[in-house]
Task: inverse folding
């Protein structure tokens, strides 16, 4: 839990009282590798902080799955549109490695907003961070080559990316596994 506090304190000045309220709303859960945390059709009830692990978001398709987001340690994860609207998710959320999450319910988050001085600022910052990441990814898909997208992911998470099956990386950067193999051969020659 201290990992979350350190994460926040990089951006905000937390009082002990604010932290106590925030921490009281958190529950730690562990999930094995390849565990579906949320299935399409279910409603997201939690905003989670990844203590350790890798999580992917994907749309199930008959022929192949479409991985559209990957989340790593020290970040927040949620089927956020479902969490905010209380509508069923249209995608799955799955662990790619053994994962430990600190989870807060929607009602718990509302308590943090109401009862702390810093809660609304943290919420706004987290929402803005998610928006910026989503926008960056969309622009990358429109402007960058597949090789550039692969190299960026590799430079941002070099050790963790080795734990992700290549078919998910290929889907995430918008290419086939065969095209990714060609890119990797070209890079590592």
Result:
């Amino acid at each position: 839990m201290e990992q979350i506090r350190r994460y926040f304190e990089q951006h905000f000045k937390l009082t002990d009282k604010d932290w106590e309220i925030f921490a009281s709303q958190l529950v730690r859960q562990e999930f094995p590798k390849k565990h579906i945390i949320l299935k399409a059709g279910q409603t997201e009830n939690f905003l989670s902080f990844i203590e350790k692990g890798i999580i992917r978001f994907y749309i199930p398709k008959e022929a192949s799955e479409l991985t559209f987001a990957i989340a790593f340690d020290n970040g927040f994860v949620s089927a956020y549109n479902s969490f905010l609207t209380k509508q069923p998710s249209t995608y799955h959320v799955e662990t790619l490695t053994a994962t430990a999450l600190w989870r807060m319910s929607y009602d718990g988050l509302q308590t943090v907003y109401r009862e702390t001085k810093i809660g609304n600022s943290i919420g706004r910052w987290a929402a803005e961070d998610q928006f910026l990441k989503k926008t960056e990814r969309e622009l990358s898909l429109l402007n960058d080559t597949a090789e550039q997208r692969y190299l960026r992911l590799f430079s941002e998470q070099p050790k963790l990316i080795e734990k992700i099956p290549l078919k998910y990386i290929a889907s995430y950067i918008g290419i086939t596994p065969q095209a990714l193999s060609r890119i990797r051969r070209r890079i590592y020659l």
The chain has eight helices and eight strands. Residues 147 and 186 are 10 Å apart (CA to CA). The mean pLDDT is 91.
